[in-house]
Amino acid sequence: MAVDQDKVMELLHRFVGDLGATVSAGGIVTGHRLGLFRALAEGPATPEELAGRTSTDARYITEWLRSQAAGGYVTHDAATESYSLTEEQAFALADPDGPLYLPGAFVLALGTLRAEPRITEAFRTGAGMGWHEQHADVFDGCDMFFRPGYLANLVPAWIPALDGVEAKLTGGGRVADVGCGHGASTTLLAGAFPRTRVSGSDYHSASIDRARKRTAEAGLSDRTSFEVATAATFGGSGYDLVTTFDSLHDMGDPLAAARHIREAVADDGTWLIVEPIAGDTVAENLNPVGRVYYSFSSYLCVPNAKSQGGTHTLGAQAGEAAIREIATEAGFGRFRRAAETPFNAVYEARP
């Protein structure tokens, strides 16, 4: 067999980058948990100074800073042997409540990989693994990963992109936030539209507990309610807006969920479907974003769908055509892509 050495070296370069990224993910999560990025955003620091700011060990901090600088997440000054964050690095790494917080994605990734032995066995047996069986970091990381995008886009861009929805919610509407998780989207909608009532539902009871706590802390309990229910069993009808944020593709029977949503939405209502950005073919998704979503999907989305019977197992890269087919078969007569971001496609379905 003739091996092209140039192609071998190309593969090795990719391997080194991937291995470094895999191992350094732990360091980013450590930085998140210990507040290292936030402390470094206060100003340049030597390892000893950063250790003093964060009550940590200087020798560990030295190695951590070197690792982060090698990965491009921290900036190194060779003249002073100090480290700092650029404005862009601080924007992306140091504000958990901002419009972009990259460490949350790594919390999600490491939490996801904790299930590797069980998922590997599932590859052999075809068994499923429900979201509720995943490590707690999956729920926390998922919230941290998606919330910044919702914060930046949901109220400012996505709601205005829907036909007539903003006016309904401003005047006082009814919203069902299906698969609400920890309630990030529920809280944003309730906070932005004081006259609207928002009902959140999720089949995971621990997530509903967190969602209730979040809205209570935000002073929004008077306009929100929650229930433990699946997307095919949540209560109520006549909703002006039903939302599913990055959840439809996880469901074992998304068609049953879509049919229930059709029954629950008012005849002049809207179903807002936010899904991972994807093309309709595999070839269209062979890119860095597709790689991220296919990898998470193998460990989270497909196993969860299979644990629920898996009639569709859409996966995180289903694409617009598959989502449109689900909505149409469920009885929605109008369907369009209303908006998109680098990570999400936003669809509007109406009766």
Automatic annotation (TrEMBL):
One of its GO terms (molecular function) is methyltransferase activity. It comes from the Bacteria. Transmembrane segments: none annotated. Residues 29-93 form the S-adenosylmethionine-dependent methyltransferase Rv2258c-like winged HTH domain. InterPro entries: Methyltransf_12, SAM-binding_MTase, SAM-dependent_MTases_sf, WH-like_DNA-bd_sf, WH_DNA-bd_sf, WHD_Rv2258c. Pfam families: Methyltransf_12, WHD_Rv2258c. Residues 177-270 form the Methyltransferase type domain. GO terms for biological process: methylation. This is Methyltransferase family protein. It comes from Pseudonocardia sediminis. The lineage of its organism: Bacteria, Bacillati, Actinomycetota, Actinomycetes, Pseudonocardiales.
